[in-house]
Amino acid sequence: MIHFETIFADISFRSNGDFQMFWKKKSKSKSSSASTPIKSTSLPTINEKSSSSGRHLSVSVSSTTQKNFPSPVQSRKNKMDTMHGFLVPTYTLHDFDDGEECKVVRMIFQMSRVPYEFKHVHRDDYILEDYPFYALPTLEMNERKYGSVLSICRHLAWRYNLSGKTAYDDAQVDDIAEKVFEVRMKIKNWIDHIEHAADHACDEECTEEIAPRILTNTLFPCLERMLKSAASCWLVGHTMTWVDLLVACLVNPIIYHRPKLLQDFPLLYLHNEKVAHHDDLVGFLYHVRTRKFQDKK
User: Fold this and answer.
1) pLDDT (tens digit, 9 = 90+) per residue, 184-220?
2) Is residue 135 located within the same domain as residue 210?
């Protein structure tokens, strides 16, 4: 007797990282003179769709029970482990003790209620070759390491529904993120200066001329204009995306230490206030005082 059994798993992810699994079976039998039963499992077929509650993955796995063949137990286990790793990855985030560069990644995990391990890296005791591109932060996902902040954010946002809802929106999210991160890297030393970061060494970028000029003449006007033309209080679309978190990480310490730099950018100030006061992000950003702006005539 040869018994064919197909198992269908409908797995629905929610934005909080939880998922539900529903199993259905279809089977049929054929006559055979064989005597020793074994099972073999095909690779899963995965279909993905999005909704307001999260990304949903529909997974079909077929399992065939036969006789008179050696049992491919290890092969089946490896294939199922591959499927499980895709659906429920384990995360380890590597960064220096202050963790400023990876704050946006940790905020995405917090917003999505996804568990992860944070591995503190000591500046005086680590090996650059252990990390992609010899840089931190690094995200280790199922024992594979990824070493770009923006690519890490894009991947997690795709998994946990913090990316753009359309291809156009996603392209706009990437466009804003690239520019904001570029500016962040240019003025990083100045931000460390105003934050009184440990082991900070001042240079010409720490003056109150270069970095504030970049912000008030270039980046802040662009973000203010985008918020003014946006369909909601968020930069892209009608819901928060990961680029809102990235912008908040840059703007928040500036509001706290140099609030006058935001006096001509009320929408950007209010955007940061909304992110900082979000219930799921308490403790990540400085508290932003509620502020009323006068309309310019």
Assistant:
1) 999 998 998 888 777 677 777 777 888 999 999 999 9
2) no
